[in-house]
Design goal:
Helix content is about 10%, strand content about 55%. The protein is mainly β and about 325 residues long. It has a single domain, classed as Beta Barrel (Porin). It has a 16-stranded antiparallel β-barrel. The chain is globular, with a radius of gyration of 22 Å. The relative contact order is 0.14. It comes from Comamonas serinivorans.
Amino acid sequence: MKKTLIALAVLAASGAAMAQSSVTLYGVVDLGIGKMDGEKVNMTSSGTLNNGNSRIGLRGVEDLGGGLKAGFNFEQGINAENGGSANSVNGGLGWGRAANVWLGGNWGTFKMGRTLTPSYYGLTAYELTGAANYSVVANTYGFVGANARNNSQFSYTTPNLSGFSAELGYILKADNNNAAKWDVNAMYVNGPIGAALSANKVKGGKTNYALGGKYNFGNFALAASYQAAANSVNGDGSVANAVVGKRHGVTLGGTVAFGAASVTLDVTRDLKRELADGAKIKKYTNALLEAKYALSKRTFVYGDYLRLDGTNNYGFGLRHNF
């Protein structure tokens, strides 16, 4: 009887220990057909006209006790058209979308490695499409004038205090082409309101910043922002025409939901656009029209039309999250 009780106690203890640590496999499959201006109609899984990038990832967390937790995240881009990799770094090899480790508690979270930037998270607080690949805000002004991800980033995120939070990221000089970089956000996301101020700067460069907000009325959401990209960039973070300059503007948009369907119209208008030498260049009014229909909580179909710097681009696709 004693042996049985001891065995049950050991089994229960081991079960409790196993419950303290977990690893989750997750991912996205997004395939669409679309046409960028000047190109032929084609299928894509991580293109500008896709809702998101196809990918697979692993995330894990361990409960260290006393409210302290440790975790990691590795994420790999996938070309769903042929099964190959689809990363923008490391020659398309490795975990190019995320590779980081973190430690967190009631004092906040400290993270190291390749990860999404504080500016990116700030933009998602109010951007209507959830930072989709075809986001007119991101394709016009970048993710607050920069890439969506940083390599070798140290970051600290505060606890969420009734909707208020902030994150500070920093990259050392030796890890960023001999120029240190900082990136920061301050956010309020609570109930129908989402708002954020984001800024980032590479030493020796100018500061990119953005301020935006969103209010959800129920079946209708309205969003607006001011974007100041000191380094004029495309949505993928590449410098437009390989020339550094300024691109400042405002955005205004709305989303209407009809049950499982929704329609979004988002518009950007340049207020200032110039090259590094101060020469003025053409300003644009850009726009996105998006339609989505949810087939389930994890699967939806979508269609999008993106008017971008005088070009007309359109596509439709199917996205499944797992």
